Amino acid sequence: MITFLICMAVSLLIPDFGRKRRAKAHARVFAEGGEVVFEACLLGDRPYCRQAIVFLAASRTALCVSPTEVKTLARRCLPAGDIEIRQIRRRTRADPRIIHSFWDVAECHDGKGDFVIACAPDHMRYLSGSLAAGAPEPDAGIAG
What we know:
With 144 residues, the chain is α+β, with helices and mostly antiparallel strands. Helices cover 28% and strands 28% of the residues. It is built from two helices and seven strands, in the order H-E-E-E-E-E-E-E-H. A seven-stranded antiparallel beta sheet has the order 4-3-2-1-7-6-5. A hairpin with a 4-residue loop joins strand 6 and strand 7. It is globular.
């Protein structure tokens, strides 16, 4: 019984440790000018929006979207200089179901129309860092 409890405690601690370690590695890569790839969802009537989970590749100089994590497969760069984040908020019940319940939503505008980009809260900083120097901090616009 004690062995079971020890195994259970270790299994609960190790995944969190791995997640924290991965988050630190992503932060370091992004700070050094590298690219961080993560799952996201772009919804709206813009040509780069799709009703599907996609992968965003964010760096300080570019933001690209791809249907897979493979860098060379159908990758399209977004007009990051034209995209403005108007608000970052938590997902609500009014949002489409394709957006995961634990994701945050960035309400964006690109000069021609409004759309949303949703991703995990840990990745929102890479999205806002990639889009513009004037983008709000991920925690600044989140409504509780």
